[in-house]
Amino acid sequence: MLAYFVEAFRVLLANRTRSILTVIGLVVGVATIVSVQVAAQGMAGAVSGIFKGTNANTFFIFPKSTQGNSVRAALKLSDLALVQQSVPGVASVIPFTPRQSIVDAGHQRVRLRFGGESDKRFSTAPLAAGRTLDSEDVARAAPVCVISDNALTRLFPNAASPDSVIGTSIYVGSRRYVIVGVLGKTKIDTAALGLDISNDVAIPWTTFYNNYQRGSSFFGISVLADQGADLKTMENRTQALLTQTHGAQYQYFDFGFFAQTINGFFAIVGLIVGAVGAISLVVAGIGIMNIMLVSVTERTREIGIRKAIGARRSQVLLQFFIESLLLSAFGCITGMLLGVGLGAIVDRGFIARISGVTGSIPWLEAIVIAVGFATIVTLVFGTYPAYRAARLDPIEALRYE
Amino acid sequence: MNDRPNVVIDVAGLTKTYASGELQVQALRGLTFSIDRGEYVAIMGPSGSGKSTLMNVLGCLDRATTGTYKLDGIDVSQLDDNQLAEIRLKKLGFVFQGFNLLARTDALRNVTLPLFYAGMPAKERERRALERLTEVGIGERARHKPTELSGGEQQRVAIARALVNDPAVLLADEPTGNLDSKTSSEILALFDRLSAGGRTIIVVTHDEGVAKRSRRILRMLDGVIMSDAPAGAPV
Ligand SMILES: Nc1ncnc2c1ncn2[C@@H]1O[C@H](COP(=O)(O)OP(=O)(O)OP(=O)(O)O)[C@@H](O)[C@H]1O
Ligand SMILES: [Mg+2]
To answer: Is B168 helix (H, G, I), strand (E, B) or coil?
Structure first.
């Protein structure tokens, strides 16, 4: 049996150009599928990484925009206390205020995400200097703020260290806030993905309420759940509670849902690219069959000689079959390595830069794909030419010019 | 059969009819003869008389339409394709006018081919092939491809290949047809030597000079044997 592989290898080597042309299609097809696989793996890792960096224990609830009576649906200060008291597992409830404001610090004037937070952090960014907002700040509605790493670089481009800005003031409009804390970089650059909804400049939510929202209704409310609480149950309860109180419709949203949506999107992209790859593999397989058929015709005389010498049908069949097998194995393995390389470049160079998470290379999947396609291509497209070769009549084959 | 233990080829009432469309060509019309072990037989006759057709049947490359053919005691007419292949592999060596060597394969590997199909280990294959190549006088060109060899050398390689399985009969259809007279006589000298060594040889030829070297001449015309006589007998 090994002798047949050696023999087939010699034949393919003797016809190098033809062999290489044959497998190019296969290389491209397998490389496409494998690289998509590798990149998708990295993508999935990245998405889960992104939401590890944000506090996943948060949800937002707000009136549905598609209802008639928006006045009745409007959320008020009293709703915060209601949710806090009636829904089990709530750690903190504050108004949800997605908003951008012009912030001044010395000569710098920058537009930043500005909002109210409570003593409990809604984000998991580490503290770089000073302290976080605490319950006393909230209780006193103190004119203090905590700024993000992004705000620090934009408001204080010349700051020696995060510590150096503690105690200095910034202005939003005519109102002054003293910086009590600076946050560090989150591991994941969510801003680059457009996913960051945390505040660049955070003041106690009570301060925010007093200065900007008094008398008006909120866009929605943010709820931070206790560690280990079941978010889904809390979301449903909160929704039911607000509906009952206001007689209006509310919808909620959390990061888990967001992650699902994004993963679903990547799954569809992967499916489409995979289908394109599969089509190119069929084309490649037909290419191999074509070349092998041409090869059978071209080598009719050779087959005649082999049969005249005493090769049995099954031996000729085996020889051609193994030639196809070697061709497709070579194509699939090359395609696999190329695909893994390409996928790793995309993953490391692009996805990992954003997510901070480097996906591990899915060697097993890549090998399974490559071996699978090699087998299928050989079985489907290698058998017929081999059969044609084996069936040739020795005398006619010898007479063929 | 026991009364003729020396018979290696035994043919009786052999016919071959080619059906090409409407037309039927009777290439062989009832041949009966036998050939003993160690005989050196020449088959002669004008073009189209059926010499190649007979050689193909004797070489188990083709089947007779009717009649029986016993090779080395085996009734070949009853065998299927795979069994015929086996007979070609083990009992017959065929030499063609056009050499029929594998073009991209060197001499040594051309000669090992029958042993490869017989399932012999690579080392043993190469040892035997080299032995045969040396026997036919081109052992030193073993690593050359056919395109790098002269016609005479190519035919020697083909003869080595035909002999490598130690066949019961060596069949040659116009083996010198493509060679000049000097090279032809070298090949014929090789046949003489093989015959002297006890080989059974059947050669198809147009050349009376070639025929004279054999010890028996079958003369064919229109698919029948006109005469069967020792070489040197009056035509
Ligand atoms: N495959 C075939 N189909 C139809 N007719 C054939 C076929 N092969 C041979 N013939 C015919 O059979 C007859 C005998 O042919 P064959 O080749 O045996 O002659 P030959 O004696 O070898 O001639 P040459 O000396 O020219 O080689 C010829 O009439 C030929 O046309
Ligand atoms: Mg002929």
So the answer is: coil
CA distance A240 to A29: 52
Distance, CA B47 to ligand 2 centroid (Å)? 7
State residue A359 phi and psi, 5-degree precision.
Answer: -70, 145
Give the mutation candidate from A12, A309, A316, A393 for the B interface (greatest B CB count, under 10 A). A309
Q: For chain A, how many structural domains are there in total? A: 2
Distances from the Cα of B56 to the Cα of B16, B33, B51, angstroms:
11, 16, 9
CA distances from A238 to A60, A81, B76 (A): 10, 12, 93
> Which residue in B89, B100, B103 is closest to A310 by CB distance?
B89
Rounded Cα gap, residues A381 and A274, in angstroms: 21
**Euclidean distance between the first and the last CA atom of chain A, given in angstroms as a whole number:** 31
3-state secondary structure of A56: coil
pLDDT for position A360: 67
Q: Is the CB of B18 under 6 A from ligand 1?
A: yes
The minimum CA-CA distance between B214 and chain A, rounded to whole Å, is 25
Q: Which domain holds residue A243?
A: 58-254
Nearest residue on chain B to A4, judged by CA atoms?
B116
Name the residue range of residue B188's domain. Answer: 38-64+77-230
* Cα dihedral A205→A209→A210→A214 (10° resolution): -170
User: Across the strands, what pairs with A203?
Assistant: A116
Task: Give the residue from chain B lying closest to A398, CA to CA.
Answer: B100
Give, for B230, the enclosing helix (H) or strand (E).
strand B224-230
pLDDT tens string, chain A, 401 residues long: the values are 787 888 888 888 877 887 887 788 778 878 887 887 777 777 766 666 555 545 567 888 888 877 767 778 888 888 888 888 888 888 888 887 777 888 888 888 888 888 887 765 556 677 888 888 888 888 899 999 999 888 888 899 888 888 999 999 999 988 999 999 998 876 555 544 445 567 888 898 889 888 887 777 777 888 888 877 888 888 899 999 988 888 888 888 887 777 677 777 777 877 887 787 778 778 777 877 787 787 778 788 888 999 999 999 999 889 888 988 888 888 888 988 888 888 888 777 766 666 555 666 777 877 887 888 788 878 888 888 888 888 888 888 888 77
Pocket test for ligand 1, best of B14, B16, B25 (most atoms within 8 A of CB): B25
A243 with A200, same domain?
yes
pLDDT in tens, B34-43: 999 999 999 9
- Choose which residue among B15, B44, B52 to substitute to test ligand 1 binding: the one with the highest number of ligand atoms within 8 A of its C-beta: B52
Residues 6+ apart with CB under 8 A from A37: A270, A274, A339, A343, A362, A365, A366, A369
Q: Out of A254, A283, A311, pick the residue that ends a domain.
A: A254
* CB of B52 sitting under 6 A from ligand 1: yes
Tokens of B70: 């016993």
B148 secondary structure, DSSP code: G
Residue B8 inside a domain? The answer is: no
Chain A residues within 8 A of B103 when measuring between CB atoms = 302
pTM of the model: 0.68
Q: How far is CA A110 from the centre of its chain?
A: 31
Provide the CATH number for the domain around residue B192: 3.40.50.300
Last residue of a domain, one of A200, A234, A254: A254
In this structure, are residues B97 and B210 in contact, taking their beta carbons and an 8 Å threshold?
Answer: no
**Is B26 part of any domain?**
no
